[in-house]
Amino acid sequence: MTLIKAKDLAFSYNGTPAVAGAAFELLEKDVLAVIGPNGAGKSTLLRLISGFLEPSTGSAELLGRDVRSYSKVELARLVAYVPSELYLPYDFSVLEIVLMGRSPRVPWWRDYSDTDVSRALGSLKEVGILELRDRSINSLSSGERQLALIAQALAQEPCVLLLDEPTSHLDINYKIQVFGLLTRLACGGMGVIVVSHDLALMAAYAGKVLILKKGGQLYFGPAKTGLSGAIIAAAYGISDSAPVARLLNLAN
Amino acid sequence: MKTNKGANILWLVPAVFAAAALALFAGAVRNAGPEIIWGLRFPRILAAAVVGAGLGFSGAVFQGLLKNPLSDPYILGTSAGAMAGAVLCSAFGISRSSPLFYLAVFAGAFCATFFTYSLAKIKKYASVAHLVLSGVAVSTFLTALIMLFMTLYREHSLSLVYFLLGGFFPADNALLAISGAIVAASVACGAVLWRYLDIFSLGEEKAAYLGADPDKVRLIFFALASLATAASVALAGTVGFVGLIVPHVLRLLFGPSHRSLLISSALGGALFLILADTVARVAAAPVEIPVGVITALFGAPFFIWLLRSTAGGNNRIKD
């Protein structure tokens, strides 16, 4: 089943084009990597398909409807967004943070129910940090905090998970842990889109890849074909593709 | 969902009653008769409770909205607006006890705050930084006008200073009831919507992704806090430190979640102000010290101690 369909998406910030002509599809069980150089519009693309920004041209559809036609609450039940880092001025506990993910499913006048609490605990367990539930979120390491944010997203029970550079500041241990989790979630039916600079990691875990360059889209399709030295060198503007291929341990 | 911490704020309720009982029997007049106790002191204690609750609550809301634990209810032009209302009354000879005075101060406080909000929103997006800057601009301008008036009309200045410091002028019980109703309604609404203020501290983009429209959250809580502050200031002038310290202390004691923080700040504010007002009445009897002097005298050193003892702890103020 198609979860997300983007056609000719384009967006400009105050006249400066950020994304131009992006088109792709996200199906259930897909792990889609979005890669490209800085300024190619990867984060903007996530904001367009999550409905946060309105495209200047083109459309993004979620489950067959224009993503902008959903209410914020409806959208929050279907799509969850995990940012790279989150600054929190106050020391909420991990459980309190994850419970916030249940908010879209709780009417405004009601408090979180026992079901909500057990779902939140379930998310923490799935992510592997159940024992941290009463710790203050600001006392966790970056890796643990990122896992807590993913747990919060899972508590929303979304069908699509969007992650913007989830492991760029984490060590290899956490990179493997996060991507193992994402693979498990995808197998369970979720659609996952990950924006990342870590090409080797994407080559190992992504099933499909969307390659952007400044000013447009270069490739969308299976990762095995897309993550080739030639295409990546073209996207990043590297003249010699051989070192890229070596770095990625790919056939040229 | 009840946490262990949530249940503990209930001890604030008997504490408030105990303080009120203490205040009823403490005063310049020894062995006071029922007319003094019920006629004079009781309404005053009620007023202290209402004002303390209103300021404590709105301090907590602004600290949550502006994501800054050093915010107070006056940060967005409210106190300057209130003073402007008081100055206007002074200019037209309207006395402190008149209902018109109450109305002018209420309107001044509320309108100044909303003016700050709409100034910040002219950029289409009222970010926290814009709000604070716009508050500084509005406050500075209004304060300059007030100072101009006070320089030109020196005979009115002292009473205006007393207003600025905050104090409980014998007020119409009807006005007390109005303020009480406004503060109670604001606290009640805030207490129902608490989780949106929690989510708001994740940042506005993330709040939107969790289904909490940041513009709506900002507007609603802003309105609640402004109403509570305006109702408090109209009754007792600009009493300082209550809105800054009380939420801060309660956050340290019971955690940052607004589930309990909004209610406990209201109760804590009432407690603090009842006690402060008792001291204000009794300490230099028969002279009455403006209650704002007491809250600042005790509040400032306490705040400095708090700042120093928590710096480096797990409740660091992040920059």
Characterization of the model:
- The complex is a heterodimer of chains A (252) and B (319).
- With 252 residues, chain A is of the alpha/beta class.
- Helices cover 37% and strands 25% of the residues of chain A.
- Chain A is globular and about 55 Å long.
- In chain A, α4 (114-127) packs across α5 (142-155).
- Chain A is built from 10 helices and 10 strands.
- Chain A has a 6-stranded mixed beta sheet, sandwiched between helices. A 4-stranded antiparallel beta sheet of chain A has the order 2-1-4-5, with helices on one face.
- Chain B is mostly helical.
- Chain B has helices at residues 4-8, 12-25, 34-65, 78-91, 99-121, 128-152, 154-165, 173-192, 194-200, 204-209, 214-236, 242-254, 258-282, 291-310.
- Chain B starts with a helix and ends in a 9-residue tail after the last helix.
- Residues 313-319 of chain B have low confidence and may be disordered.
Shape of chain A: globular
Ends apart, CA distance between termini of chain B: 32 Å
Task: Note poorly predicted spans of chain B.
Answer: 313-319
Which structural class fits the helix and strand makeup of chain B?
Answer: mainly alpha
Strand content of chain B: under 5%
Subunit arrangement of the protein: heterodimer
Q: Give the rounded overall mean pLDDT of chain B.
A: 85
Query: Can you write the helix and strand succession of chain B as a string?
Result: HHHHHHHHHHHHHH
Q: Tally of extended strands of chain B?
A: 0
Overall pLDDT metric of chain A: 90
Radius of gyration of chain B: 19 Å
Written as H for each helix and E for each strand, in order along the chain, the element string of chain A is: EEEHEEHEHHHEHEHEEHHH
Largest sheet of chain A, described in full? 6 strands, mixed
Distance between the termini of chain A: 33 Å
